[in-house]
Amino acid sequence: MKEIKNIDKASLAKVTALIYGFIGFFMALIVAIATMTNIITNRDFQGSVILVTLFNIGAGLLLGIITAFFTAAIGWVFGFISAGIYNWFAKKMGGVKIELIEVADEKQPANNPPANNNQTL
């Protein structure tokens, strides 16, 4: 058994920020598409359906990008704080225990030793 004693705060913060950013981007796109669909199906617009669609797609992409940045920032803060809290509890009570196994390298079969590159031809 191995034990995780410490989590690098910046490392967890980066991963959490990426996860939150992707989720925020796709959620904003889903909201934009749902709004566009609702406007078109209820005929709650004036003008061309194509213009309404293009406007909502553009607004959805812009909203998705803005939301991704905000949710990524929130995710970074949560990841940093979570790592700090974990590290504090790990010092007081011990870390999470995990069991690791050794995996053979995929590039080289486990049963065959590496070839000697110093052979003369």
Write the layout of secondary structure elements.
Elements: E1 2-4, H1 9-41, H2 49-93, E2 96-98
Explain what you see.
With 121 residues, the chain is mainly alpha-helical. The protein has a domain at 9-84. Helices cover 64% and strands 5% of the residues. It has helices at residues 9-41, 49-93; strands at residues 2-4, 96-98. Strands 1-2 form a two-stranded antiparallel ribbon. α1 (9-41) packs antiparallel against α2. The model has no long low-confidence stretch (mean pLDDT 84).
Q: TL;DR?
A:
This protein has 121 residues and is mostly helical. Helices cover 64% and strands 5% of the residues.
Main sheet: strand order: 1-2
Order of helices and strands: EHHE
Q: Whole-number radius of gyration? A: 25 Å
**Total number of beta strands:** 2
| Overall body shape | elongated
Q: What level of helicity do the residues show?
A: 55-70%
Give the CA-CA distance, first to last residue: 48 Å
Give the DSSP E fraction (strand runs of 2 or more residues). Answer: under 5%
* Classification by helices and strands: mainly alpha
Which ranges are low-confidence, i.e. pLDDT below 50, for 5 or more consecutive residues?
A: none
SS field, number of helical segments: 2
What's the pLDDT, averaged over the residues? 84
Major sheet: size, sense and barrel closure? 2 strands, antiparallel
